[in-house]
Design goal:
Keywords: Membrane, Transmembrane, Transmembrane helix. This protein is an all-alpha fold and about 290 residues long. It folds into two domains: about 1-230, no CATH class; about 235-290, no CATH class. It contains eleven helices and no strands. Helix 1 (about 1-30) runs antiparallel to helix 5 and helix 6 runs antiparallel to helix 7. The protein is flat. About 30% of the residues are buried.
Length: about 290
Amino acid sequence: MKSKVCRLLSLLHLLWGAALLALCVLGLLDVEWRGEFLGGDLLWMAVLFATTGILTSNSYRTLVNMRLAMNVVCLGIAVEKMCASTNLIYQYSSYDVYVMGENRTFVAQIVLISVQTLVFAAEALTALASCFIFGREVNREQTFTNRISSELPVVLSLGTLFYAVVITGCYVVFELGKWRYSEVPIEVPFFRLGNGPLALAAFIVQLFCICHPRLLTVSVILQIIVAALALFTISPAITNVYFLFRTTVQHRLGPNVRLPLCFTWSVAPYVDVAICVSTALAPDHQYASESKI
């Protein structure tokens, strides 16, 4: 029974990866009816889901820790992308720039994004079921001679929780602001890494280490992944802070005034706001430098 369940989950991961790959190809085709739907961002997720399916299969003698960690990663990324796709459905169905366009393009965009959202939802459910199965397997197979104290995982998990709340909260505030002021869709599409929900999933696994110390290895793997994603956002964040600070000061002083090398305390609050905003925009790469503020 266990072997059949693992094979079923493996096939589901492969199926959702193949579906994303098909959407990726459709998004790269030079056809008018696809509109603003771009499928290039789906390629790495298709590879991730397919790889998780291969590792989940019993045909490969992979450690249960690695299987559980991969499914947690898929769960966090699928949830974030599902929410982002839902937001795109709202944009494509409500903004005048899309509604007043060609009817075939209008319908095709919504259909493609809806299918993408359903695929992410199905992958999230599949990864969640896999997490329960392999989590029980980890608790049953591994043994530890010494138990770790509960204080250490709690203290270490606070940093991950703070990172997840800040990243996810900035995304939510950014999107709610666009809805509130009826801003037009962004001119340059940008993509997100899904590190906010992934960090939240890593935080939950780290909390489970208090009651189940056998999950410590999985928690370490997830923390390394989250740390790598956080380090990846540092360079775009620095670029966005500089760009936002320069734009703000230039707007206040005028276009013909040269910017000073240092800023006074009156400008410091703007820099603080820029740092907060750039944290949200950091995974979006060149959005801040290419969009109009």
